[in-house]
Amino acid sequence: MDSVFIVDPARCIGCEACVQACAECGTHRGVSMIHLEFVDRAHSVQTTPQVCMHCEEPTCAQVCPADAIKQTPDGVTQSSLKPRCIGCQNCVLACPYGVPKYQVEIDQMMKCDMCYDRTSVGKRPMCATVCPSEALYFGPLEEWRGRRRGRPVGTWRFGRQVVRTRVMMVMPESVDRIDVWADKRQGAGREDRLDERRAEVAD
Question: Is 137 helix (H, G, I), strand (E, B) or coil?
Fold first, then answer.
């Protein structure tokens, strides 16, 4: 698979076409494997689609006691295998991106598998096919670079843990990895500043 999967939150318009298209895929039994996240619901209407990031070393598969989550040779992490999944939800708790969902009705974890039935034969995933703003892109990296600004980044840092993903997120040119812990600390700082401002106004 030579194509890359790129998520550009700045281009997401929150239309949820990706969510609907994913739900209509015949392999998901009417359940969408992609969801929409609000980046900062208290302060912005900015949304971003959340797909499985397809980690190089997927934590969901590592914590599965039933060996139900497999990774293809080209790096796509599959949804759990029905005969093996025991519904323990270890994968749900372990994923740093909050992607796997436990489906009570079928007692099985389900998640985005990058439409492997399509992408393994050169087609785009359903979500990328319908995205009107190209917030979701699947195709050659050089084609993307010829039309877009920013840097696709597939390296994340969660505290001391570094995670590399097959799906990339568009960041400013100066950013070569996404430091989630630092972002949280900055967010906490902002909340502290807001609390200080609220106290000033109350006085």
Answer: strand
